[in-house]
Amino acid sequence: MGEWLGSGLSDEELDAAYNVRRKAGEELFARHMERYRAESERAVDGLPGRPGIVYDEASGERLDVWGTGEGLRPVFVYLHGGYWMALSRNVSSFMARGLWEQGVATVVPDYTLAPKASLEEIVRQVRACVAWVHRHGRDHGLDPERIVVGGSSAGGHLTGMVMAGGWQEAFGLPRDVVKGAMPISGLFDIRPITRVYVNDVVGLDLERAAALSPALLPVEHRCPAVFVVAEDDGEGFLEQSRWFQPRWGAGELIVAPGRDHFDVVFDLADPESRVGAALLGLVRR
């Protein structure tokens, strides 16, 4: 398959670049996961919305709608991380209250985790989620003409897969259905994953990984994008964003100071942070 990001590194070097849980250490990782849960619960406590809507009949997967209000609101669709094999919508709505206060609704879907679902199926599901928002959003106070998609880590990869072209027609969607995107610590060429521990679960080969890499897919419409990565992120994630952002050609790169792979997402809830302000800028274009 030729050269690709990290192809010249040893397996040990690739693991060091992409094993962000090991980089954080188990104690800090556990604190981050507890914060995901606690802040998500606080964010949606008493917040107007509707949780648990089935968005994809084929899989039965569900999404939560949070932060609706008068009229139709622009919507931020957040795709959670967890290397496609962990986490859920229940611990991924920590930004919902902060966005609601700024007039923005939040949609957080589940997707079937690996290895129960293939990565191709996971991608299909998140695209089906975007299609659901476009078709049914008005019934839930969501503006189908103002959809911004973002996600962290694996969710950043999935964000890239809805930024790419070549899938919208099959779902009956316009090419510009996604009006803005914010991949956070995203993976845009996932061929390195074939040689790290994650592949024991997702089971990719180089050919499938290439077909599932946003950077290698056709682009029919370059939506505005903000690429975010943490200053203390894994080296592989820093390289991925620094490499793909100029190739996308329709967005900026933010390296969030003092943040790591797991806590950078909390800036989404803070409109005073550079990341939070950039998200609101995407929504309000």
TrEMBL record:
Keywords: Hydrolase. It comes from the Bacteria. It holds the Pfam family Abhydrolase_3. Residues 76-164 form the Alpha/beta hydrolase fold-3 domain. GO terms for molecular function: hydrolase activity. This is Arylformamidase. It comes from Actinomadura hallensis. The lineage of its organism: Bacteria, Bacillati, Actinomycetota, Actinomycetes, Streptosporangiales.
